[in-house]
């Protein structure tokens, strides 16, 4: 069968499937907004509004996995740690001492620390689980640090360094970096630069770029991408699809985001959605990907045909 004939039949079948199952959910951003209507902080990020509560946005991601999640328990813990820090921290006049004290309280007194097993489970990315267990991956632990610091009146920023997320505090002497994964570890700029360059095996210029502070949108996107890699690796396609829908809302025009949504939709048992996405992607796809997409279109068409 010629490709044009095949795509024409695929379109007819897709239209028939859409009529039976409703609108093409995978690309309808309005429908997705309704799906996430409870997640007000996340929706602000979708609208490019950075004035959000990062801890609440992170808990909104966890609610996908725990539908009945009680936010108040985690937020109360954050408030209590902020009160604890606020009572003592302003007696420390050096910002570096304040950063070290923050790590001492959260990592030492309350036991927040990294754990290699946290990389293999979604719970290592969820703020509520990190608070409950004291274990997490660098970015989820860093979000706890940022949330507590902000409530204590400390301006701590996220740093999406290659291979290892960090937090950053500005001082008169220059920025200092807190590694929430290794409790109490506080690095001055040059030492942190050397370390990131070594662990990521990158140039010094790239390492410098990676130590710049990032916005909330970037933090949430990185958390979602971590979850996506985990779910795809574990073939948890339903969870992967939900994460990819969130990424689509944050990055609706990016080719890679739409491509991955199509492929995950197919794996998640949504061949009609996948077929529509793949057909729209094919004309603008890089040449080296077109044959792969044609194969996915063929697979999606076969699955959709079973509706007949």
**CATH architecture group name of the largest domain:** Roll
Rg from C-alpha positions?
22 Å
Main sheet properties = 5 strands, antiparallel
Based on Cα principal axes, name the global outline: globular
Number of helices: 15
The strand count comes to 7
Query: What is the H-and-E element order?
Result: HHHHHHEHEHEEEEHHEHHHHH
CATH first level of the largest domain: Alpha Beta
Structural class of the helix and strand makeup?
alpha+beta
Global mean pLDDT: 89
Spatial order of the strands in the main sheet? 6-5-4-3-7
Per DSSP, what share of the residues sits in E-state strands of 2 or more residues? Answer: 5-15%
Descriptive overview:
The chain is an alpha+beta fold. It has 2 domains: 3-49 and 237-305, Serine Threonine Protein Phosphatase 5, Tetratricopeptide repeat, CATH 1.25.40; 54-214, Roll (C8orf32 fold). The protein contains 15 helices and 7 strands. The protein has helices spanning 3-21, 29-35, 40-46, 54-63, 71-89, 95-109, 127-133, 138-151, 189-200, 204-210, 216-233, 237-250, 255-267, 271-281, 287-305; strands spanning 113-114, 135-136, 156-159, 166-169, 176-179, 185-188, 213-214. Strands 6-5-4-3-7 form a 5-stranded antiparallel beta sheet. Strands 1-2 form a two-stranded parallel ribbon. α1 crosses α15 (287-305). The protein is globular and about 70 Å long. The model is unreliable at 1-26 (pLDDT under 50).
């Amino acid at each position: 069968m010629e490709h044009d004939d095949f795509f024409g039949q695929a379109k007819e079948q897709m239209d028939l499937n859409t009529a039976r199952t409703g609108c093409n959910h995978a690309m309808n951003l309005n429908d997705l907004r309704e799906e996430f209507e409870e997640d007000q902080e996340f929706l602000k990020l979708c609208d490019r509004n950075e004035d959000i509560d990062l801890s609440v946005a992170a808990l909104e991601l966890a609610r996908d996995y725990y539908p009945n999640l009680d936010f108040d328990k985690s937020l109360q813990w954050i408030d209590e740690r902020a009160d604890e820090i606020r009572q003592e921290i302003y007696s420390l006049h050096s910002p570096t001492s304040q950063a070290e004290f923050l790590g001492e309280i959260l990592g030492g007194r309350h036991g927040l620390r990294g754990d290699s097993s946290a990389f293999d489970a979604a719970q290592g990315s969820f703020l509520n689980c990190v608070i409950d267990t004291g274990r997490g991956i660098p970015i989820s632990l860093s979000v706890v640090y940022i949330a507590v610091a902000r409530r204590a009146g400390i301006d701590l920023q996220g740093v999406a360094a290659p291979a290892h997320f960090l937090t950053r505090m500005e001082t008169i002497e220059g920025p200092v970096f807190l590694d929430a994964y290794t409790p109490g570890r506080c690095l001055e700029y040059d030492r942190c630069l050397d370390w990131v360059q070594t662990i990521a095996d990158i140039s010094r210029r790239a390492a410098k770029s990676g130590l710049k502070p990032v916005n909330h949108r970037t933090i949430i996107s990185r958390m979602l991408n971590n979850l996506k890699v985990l779910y795809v690796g574990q073939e948890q396609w339903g969870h992967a699809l939900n994460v990819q829908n969130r990424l689509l809302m944050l990055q609706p025009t990016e080719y890679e985001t739409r491509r991955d949504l199509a492929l995950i939709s197919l794996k998640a048992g949504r061949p009609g959605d996948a077929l529509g996405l793949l057909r729209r992607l094919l004309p603008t796809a890089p040449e080296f990907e077109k044959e792969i997409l044609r194969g996915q279109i063929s697979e999606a068409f076969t699955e959709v045909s079973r509706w007949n």
